[in-house]
Write a structure and sequence with these properties.
Strand content: 5-15%
Radius of gyration: 27 Å
Number of domains: 3
CATH architecture of the largest domain: Alpha-Beta Barrel
CATH topology of the largest domain: TIM Barrel
Number of strands: 15
CATH class of the largest domain: Alpha Beta
Strand order of the largest sheet: 10-9-8-15-14-13-12-11
Distance between the termini: 33 Å
């Protein structure tokens, strides 16, 4: 059900409540007024009261008292908090009534009470007045959450992880997954992730407790089939690989389950969640190597089903219910009937154009499922925001119509995870809106996003996200799961894999727009007073995108000279050489800026993955400049009619296997 139209008396709320009615007057906060709890109020109610007290102090400098009362009628103006009432069939629902003499929040469960407090916090005004209203609210989905990749190069610090949890509860999200391939410190297998700043047991256990107190379920997520190259490349485990690609672990090797048992026995006990995401996606070489004979015996998809069942049983021994990605199941629709109904499928696709209703096959077979759109941040200097928002909205709509358990929006880090976290905030918030109450009212979401995340009442912060997020065109056909600007940013102008497919007019058009947006971002520093680091991340994305347009234009001129050397005279060659050299210097400076921004939120992790991509580009720019200065045009690359974005991304991998979870 779409949220009610917002009243002019109320600020836009995020996510927008289901039913809102404005009333005359306002409740006036003042020092000493009580937050009244009923007798027997539990720890969750006390934490909700403290969250409200802290929000009031921050918003208007008023100090409220937290008290327990059996009767409230004689207290005068007060705030009453209570959960355990009939409000909210999921326990996440709540009712909030603001009157001139009383504020009452009641909820179906502890989470609902906290969500009532979050909504009340958004109604606070600096004057200490809370506009009178009645709100009756509950979410569309039981599970609403995020999945952050912590394995492709970047491992967040504990402080960053807590910030993400805080953002989740502020947005009424109740689930968080940290996608893990090798970035956990295993005592029995210390080689795994040793060079990747891995998370340890104490960090995850502490984070799980922190999240639980805020009604966020930290769901363990560990890869158990494909995407195993970080482990299988190690000498100790290479013999467990399905093929020489060392991508998929071999189900026919008994050592596979000995290893997985060791890993799960160390990893799963650190989580309170009843769920476990075993992943099992994209096992590209499964059945093409050591499992070939077993695959023939069981038929298509049989080895996969057999493996998933073994992993499910391991997780069940830890009292966990297993989730897996649905791509292999979709590839073998004839085997859906054989799937264990205790499994929950995660249906993913990350482009705006897609058959989102394909999840109906899960519903028809009685299989629980989640819909999993994406932020479109990976393989991008800044998110492909238009694509992401449509992807999220259409998936949520399909999940709502076909009975999905929830919406989990994914934030991957393919090929180095150089996409900066603050750039994901808009998609995170939009996903929260879609999974709570559906499509927002036009304009209201942007104002609420700007106000609630950054304290920007003007709405300019959201406009900057949208403006920067729509600028990716370089004249080449669209590439799935990647921004063309990013492809050019990291391209070597020698082979010019991506540059050769760009077009001058499109590059110049995007450059002009980026220059205007960049100036707006630079002037908007005060709009991001709550999160100056996020402002720096947006400014970096604008500068990197601008450099990509300059590099594309210079790269095309360089390519044209190689094909027609007489086209440039000595002066023009020197001018182009200076531009290429300046681009190399500028990109080197951007590399330093990126590392600083990276370390502000994350451990050092595997920054070298992204560093190598920078080095390829910078060296290529300098080689091109030297060739121009010496007037020795290298042989031009052969003309290729169609750009292969996937092959280009894989040039940066040590082995020629696909390495992205979002391809």
């Amino acid at each position: 059900m779409s949220p009610a139209s917002p009243s002019t008396a109320l600020p836009p709320l995020l996510p927008a409540p289901r039913r809102v009615r404005a009333r005359p007057g306002a409740f006036a906060l003042r020092d000493g007024l009580p937050i009244a709890l009923r007798p027997g109020a539990d720890d969750a109610a006390v934490r909700a009261a403290r969250a409200l007290r802290d929000a009031v102090r921050a918003a208007c400098g008023v100090e409220l008292a937290i008290e327990g009362h059996a009767r409230t009628d004689e207290l005068g103006p007060r705030v009453e908090l209570q959960h355990g009432s009939a409000a909210g069939k999921l326990g996440d629902g709540y009712r909030l009534d603001v009157e001139p003499t009383r504020i009452a929040a009641e909820a179906g469960g502890p989470a609902g009470l906290r969500y009532a407090v979050e909504t009340l916090s958004q109604l606070l005004r600096k004057s200490g007045r809370v506009p009178a209203c009645s709100i009756d609210d509950e979410p569309d989905f039981e599970m609403r959450g995020l999945m952050l990749d912590v394995s492709r190069g970047k491992v967040p610090t504990p402080a960053t992880l807590r910030q993400i949890v805080d953002l989740c509860v502020h947005l009424k999200q109740n689930a968080l997954m940290l996608y893990t391939e090798h970035t956990f410190r295993f005592r029995r297998h210390p080689e795994i992730g040793a060079d990747a700043s891995p998370l340890d047991a104490e960090t995850l256990r502490t984070l799980a407790g922190y999240a639980a107190e805020r009604h966020v379920d930290l769901i363990p997520s560990l890869q158990t089939l494909g995407h195993m190259r970080h482990i299988l490349k190690l000498p100790r485990y290479a013999h467990l690989a399905e093929t020489d690609a060392r991508w998929t672990i071999a189900p026919v090797d008994p050592g596979t389950y000995e290893l997985l048992a060791d890993l799960l026995d160390e990893y799963l006990p650190n989580f309170r969640s009843r769920w476990f995401n075993a992943n099992c996606d994209e096992p590209f070489d499964l059945g093409r190597g050591r499992s070939g004979l077993r695959d023939e015996q069981l038929g298509p998809g049989g080895v996969y089903l057999e493996h998933v069942e073994r992993v499910r049983e391991m997780a069940r021994a830890h009292n966990k219910r297993t989730l897996i990605w649905g791509d292999v199941v979709h590839a073998h629709p004839e085997r859906i009937r054989d799937l264990n109904r205790e499994l929950v499928l995660l249906d993913w696709w990350y482009e705006a154009q897609h058959d989102f209703d394909r999840v109906r096959v899960f519903a028809e077979h009685g299989i629980a499922f989640l819909v999993c759109p994406g932020t479109s941040t990976w393989n991008s200097l800044f998110p492909r925001l238009e694509n992401s928002l449509e992807n999220i909205a259409r998936y949520a709509d399909s999940g709502r119509r076909h009975g999905a358990l929830g919406v989990v929006t994914t934030d991957w880090g393919d090929h180095g995870h150089y996409n900066l976290l603050g750039n994901s905030w808009f998609a995170y918030a939009f996903s929260a809106q879609q999974s709570w109450s559906g499509d927002p009212q036009p304009g209201a979401f942007d104002r609420a996003f700007s106000r609630e995340l950054f304290g920007d009442a003007s709405g300019e912060a959201a406009k900057l996200y949208r403006a920067l997020g729509e600028l990716h065109d370089v004249g080449m056909p669209s590439v799935m799961n990647a921004s063309p600007l990013q492809l050019i940013y990291f391209d070597d102008p020698g082979p010019a894999h991506a540059i050769a497919h760009a077009r001058v007019r499109a590059l110049r058009r995007t450059q002009r727009k980026l220059e205007r947006v960049r100036e707006r971002v630079a002037r908007a520093r005060e709009r991001f007073a709550r999160e100056p680091g996020t402002h720096e991340e947006l400014l970096f994305a604008a500068d990197a995108s601008l450099l990509a347009t300059r590099k594309g234009l210079a790269g095309l001129a360089y390519l044209d000279w190689r094909r027609r050397p007489t086209r440039l005279d000595a002066r023009a060659r020197r001018r182009l050489a200076r531009e290429l050299g300046a681009l190399a210097d500028a990109q080197r400076a951007l590399r330093r800026r990126l590392r600083k921004l990276w370390l502000a939120r994350s451990a050092a992790s595997n920054f070298e993955i992204t560093g190598r991509r920078y080095d390829v580009s910078i060296r290529g720019l300098r080689r091109a400049a030297r060739a121009l200065e010496a007037n020795r045009p290298p042989k031009p690359p052969p003309r290729v009619e169609r750009f292969d974005g996937r092959a280009f991304q894989n040039l940066f991998e040590r082995r020629g296997v696909r390495s992205g979870s979002a391809i």
